[in-house]
Amino acid sequence: MTAEESATTGADLLVKALIDEEVEVVFGYPGGAVLPIYDSLFKQNRLRHILVRHEQAAVHAAEGYARSTGKVGVVLVTSGPGATNAVTGLTDALMDSVPVVCLTGQVPTHLIGNDAFQEADTTGITRPCTKHNYLVKSVGDLARIVHEAFYVARSGRPGPVVIDLPKDVLMNKHDYVAPKKPVQHKSYRPQVKPEAKKVEQAIALIAGAKRPVFYCGGGVVNSGPKASRLLTQLVRLTGYPITNTLMGLGTFPASDKQFLGMLGMHGTYEANLAMYHCDVLINIGARFDDRITGKLAEFSPKSKKIHVDIDPSSINKNVHVDLPIVGDAGHVLEDMIRVWKAKQPRVDHKALKAWWAEIDKWRARNCLAYKTDNETIKPQYALERLYHHIKDRDHYITTEVGQHQMWAAQFLKFEQPNRWMTSGGLGTMGYGFPAAMGVQIAHPDALVIDVAGEASIMMNIQELSTVAQYRLPVKIFILNNQYMGMVRQWQELLHGGRYSESYMESLPDFVKLAEAFGAVGLRCHEPAKLDDTIKEMIAIRKPVIADILVDKAENCFPMIPSGAAHYDMLLGPDDRAAKPVSEEGMVLV
Amino acid sequence: MSVPQTISSHTISVLVDNEPGILARVVGLFSGRGYNIESLTVAETDAKENLSRITIVTAGTPMVIEQIKAQLDRLVPVHKVRDLTVEGPHIERELALVKVKGTGDKRVEALRLADVFRAKVIDAKRDSFVFEVTGASDKVQTFIGLMEGLGLVDVGRTGIVAMSRGGEPL
């Protein structure tokens, strides 16, 4: 065989490289520049391609796939509009540290810079919204770049990586280069193992605490399921309270009595007050986001802070910490447990008992309570009933963005990691439905539910066609209040109730809409019939839209108004008049 | 815990892969996150390893400077980030080309001052000079200031390049 014969085209090389990276599914949409890749996909049956209806949905689907499996999600889109449509998804993946490799088509190298048809400066556009990106200029570099891209996407703090592929590179021929294991990148080597001395210092600080709290986030999820088991073990060893961020839900079992619920803007009273009054704050894999800290000057003012993060740039970014530990959450937790067991530190049980007594007093406020109603369905009630019917099943939840998302975080309980997929950092309406498709592809037999609002779901509603094509039995549970609920809530609180453009006019008939796509549509507006609707939705082995008509005026509480401190929470509608939002709070989002 | 809020200037050396887009990555990071760039120089320094060295002078509070360094270090093609300002004594140099047009006394005075500043004449016409002046930024600035009254018409500056003192590499 001559060298000429053994060589393969760039497109075939790419597919081979993806298979070597153990890719099983690609979410994509074809177009002129990527036709050679689609031709290569056609000629093989190892890689499954899922045809979405919009490139943004391809990225969200890959995110859902990645977050529910821990694997890298893969996206394939064409040049120009294909790539620009993917930008929101890439930004979402960057903000929430989701490993995604996005292959974008590009015009042939000799046309780059000529304003050619469907040309966009993809590497330029995606530079700030990816962890890294590549423009492949020669087919000889292709396989190496693909392997490097997967390494970059999944290691350290995970994130999206774009590989821009000019059409001529896909058609030129070259020999294949298999991935080198283990990968040794020449400049990118994230620190995963913590410094032993710092772990010992952390244990000393933790053991000496009188009013401690664990504050844990998505970094624990990203480290893999073992990290969540280790976290649970450490928290139980210490007997200390723990709160999770939106991204961290599931890393510690929600049913455990040491769990205080989610913290932050719509977090629980007990979690936020524990953050404010604690003397030692143990942050593992969270990033002191502004939704968590509230007013920075009054954020946890009395505590010594330990911050475990794999990304050194997260440390001391918003909040100055006393003991930074750079490393992977799983490795750090493993070391912490070992040191704890070796030292058998004596915890101040008396102080801890007093601390728990205080926390129990805050818990007794029952901050998630809401007024029930026999006439209209309260959104909180809908989620409580949903949880009741799914809790003993193998289930995954995704959400869109808004009030329903916060209620889902408050009222659904997560016992394991990788079961909760939501857009935290970017807050992308339209995330949940395509993400649910990605989850369902990865877990064909599981119950996958997108908790949605009627406004968010409209942003990627075209994917009904995708779920119909692949017979994905995704359930869309719409809490329909006919408003962009969170926008309306802020307008009520901050803008004198002037509901500018937040009413959803001309909504479709969701039941008929579902039917038009070959899915099943259900509707419910009576509390008495809610259970039956939910049961029916779960029983149907097809995609379902359950349009739950809920109270239009309900607001999401508790709430820390923007610019306020943790102790300054609104616990319900009656609290509002007493605490007007400050001028400086108004400018914050 | 209180953190000092004073703003100070730092000179940071960054060793990067010499590849297309690397400068856009670094500059985009600064503009995207709202950091200052007071001076920026970049050129290939190791052809064999295909490495470039970027020298950035930036200003910020200690917390912001730490952020800048961590953010730079996070870029995949970045090999090394060193804050020369905090890592011990270092030297900084800048080069400027200064064009001065004039005749008579002003021309003689410009030439005399150039001599004082050890600036070289690298182009001369009967009514103009181009000087090359090298040194710390304030020296370069002072020289340019003096030329303003003597027919200054054009200035080009390289920005700062810097290096630690002693025998250690970056």
How does this model look, in words?
The complex is a heterodimer of chains A (589) and B (170). With 589 residues, chain A is an alpha/beta fold. Chain A folds into 3 domains: 3-174, Rossmann fold; 196-363, Rossmann fold (3-Layer(aba) Sandwich); 379-549, Thiamin diphosphate (ThDP)-binding fold, Pyr/PP domains (Rossmann fold). Chain A has 24 helices and 20 strands. Chain A has a 6-stranded parallel sheet, with helices on both faces. Chain A has a 6-stranded parallel sheet with strand order 11-10-9-12-13-14, sandwiched between helices. In chain A, helix 17 (403-411) links the parallel strand 15 (395-399) and strand 16 (420-421). In chain A, helix 2 (10-20) packs across helix 3, helix 2 runs parallel beside helix 7 and helix 4 crosses helix 18. Chain A starts with a helix and ends with a helix. The model of chain A is unreliable at 1-5 (pLDDT under 50). Chain B has 2 domains: 8-83, Alpha-Beta Plaits (2-Layer Sandwich), CATH 3.30.70.260; 91-163, 2-Layer Sandwich (Alpha-Beta Plaits), CATH 3.30.70.1150. Chain B is built from 4 helices and 9 strands, in the order βαββαββαββαββ. Chain B is elongated, with a radius of gyration of 19 Å. The mean pLDDT of chain B is 96. Chain A binds chain B through residues 123-124, 127-128, 131-132, 135, 152, 185-188, 311-313, 315-317, 320, 322, and chain B through 1, 3, 17, 20-21, 24-25, 28, 32, 63, 66-67, 70-71, 73-79.
Enumerate the spans of chain B where pLDDT stays under 50 for 5 or more consecutive residues.
none
CATH homologous superfamily classification of the largest domain in chain A? Thiamin diphosphate (ThDP)-binding fold, Pyr/PP domains
Mean residue pLDDT of chain A: 95
* Largest contact between chains: A-B, 20 and 21 residues
CATH superfamily of the largest domain in chain B: ACT domain
Q: Describe the main β-sheet of chain A briefly.
A: 6 strands, parallel
Number of domains of chain B: 2
Q: State the secondary-structure class of chain A.
A: alpha/beta
Task: Specify the CATH architecture of the largest domain in chain B.
Answer: 2-Layer Sandwich
Biggest sheet layout of chain B: 5 strands, antiparallel
Number of helices of chain B: 4
Shape of chain A: globular
What is the CATH topology classification name of the largest domain in chain B?
Answer: Alpha-Beta Plaits
Question: What is the averaged pLDDT score of chain B?
Answer: 96
End-to-end separation of chain B in angstroms reads 33 Å
Oligomer type: heterodimer
What percentage of the residues of chain B does DSSP assign to strands (E)?
35-45%
Element pattern of chain B in H and E: EHEEHEEHEEHEE
